[in-house]
Amino acid sequence: MAGTSDPHASAFSAAELEFLAEDEMIEIVPNLRMDALNFISGDFGPFRPQIPTQAPLWLAVALKKRGKCTIRAPEWMSVDKLTQVLEAERDSDKFQPLPFHYVEISRLLFDHAQGDIPDTYMVRSLIEDIKDVRFHKIGKGLESISGGGTFALKLKNLSAMEANIVRPFVTRALETFYKLSSSDMIQETDNAPNRQQTANRGPRRQLKDR
Amino acid sequence: MANYYDIGDILAEEELVPTVFQYGANGVGLFDSSDDADKFHFHDLFLARSKTREEIAADAAHVDLRSRSPYFYELGCKIALLIRDRTIGPFLLVAFQTRYRDVLVKAHALTLTMTPKYLTLLTNEEIKLYEAGQSSIAAFKKWRMGGPRFQVAPVLGRKRKLT
């Protein structure tokens, strides 16, 4: 949790990220008849049997557990699309655009709606592979930051879970680099009256280009 | 002053006290030839051509910095300010850069291979870095395994004695 006293804790626990991911909309096919549900976050429904509707993921999972609907897999979760993404990930150094919460959404769907996803095993293994490739890329990128001038990182198209995993490590590493490089600057001002050197924060380096 | 409350900083300063005292006492008579074994040890950490520096130049990742001092980097920063040796800063930076890569790889190894010997080489700051990476990977794996979404808070488990 954000407020724990453990300094090593990420800003979010994995369960919290999952909770945030459940706000994403997904398409369901209800088999019940229900009037519209009015929540603070919005209105969902009305639900009519066999008519597809949009609903947030938490609602979809709840209905699915009670056997009141079937879930339609999101369109990015098809074997073709995922194979495309996997190839692109392997070929390029950048991260491919994927839904921000793809890790959490896929885990939720596999846990509760396995029957509703065509080619479950294929999809599951593709997503695992994509995750591994991206993680490996993150590692490569992190290795390349040197202490010289890096004070901030930019990783485009990173997903929520991936960012959360590296967050504590990267923030600490950057902090230590900063501390070690700034001690150099302190020495400079001690010995030389040259003020301009302290303003130099090093070149901006972007890990992943646009 | 931002470091005033930082426990790591306080402890590092604690470490520094005995050696600084000796250095200061000897620094008064700078060329005092009193053969102080402790002063030697302290200087050896950062002296320009010291054994430590050579080891780091050779293979930074495996140098046992912890036996020199668990607060290697912090000590180095403070000493750099004290004795105005301008080569210490870049030296520390280079050492950290090379070692950081190793810590990165080991901390995020998705398989839980035990590397207990390696941990004894790391200074405190590096260990914190390692643990940060390790704990977030472990939490992620645990989440993936599944398990109950809601768990009873440990506070509720205790039985109170009704006296």
UniProtKB/TrEMBL annotation, chain B:
<dbReference type="InterPro" id="IPR038437">
    <property type="entry name" value="GINS_Psf3_sf"/>
</dbReference>
<keyword id="KW-0539">Nucleus</keyword>
<dbReference type="InterPro" id="IPR010492">
    <property type="entry name" value="GINS_Psf3"/>
</dbReference>
<dbReference type="InterPro" id="IPR036224">
    <property type="entry name" value="GINS_bundle-like_dom_sf"/>
</dbReference>
<feature type="domain" description="GINS subunit">
    <location>
        <begin position="51"/>
        <end position="144"/>
    </location>
</feature>
<comment type="similarity">
    <text>Belongs to the GINS3/PSF3 family.</text>
</comment>
<dbReference type="Pfam" id="PF05916">
    <property type="entry name" value="Sld5"/>
</dbReference>
<dbReference type="GO" id="GO:0000811">
    <property type="term" value="C:GINS complex"/>
</dbReference>
<dbReference type="InterPro" id="IPR021151">
    <property type="entry name" value="GINS_A"/>
</dbReference>
<protein>
    <recommendedName>
        <fullName>GINS subunit domain-containing protein</fullName>
    </recommendedName>
</protein>
<keyword id="KW-0235">DNA replication</keyword>
<dbReference type="GO" id="GO:1902975">
    <property type="term" value="P:mitotic DNA replication initiation"/>
</dbReference>
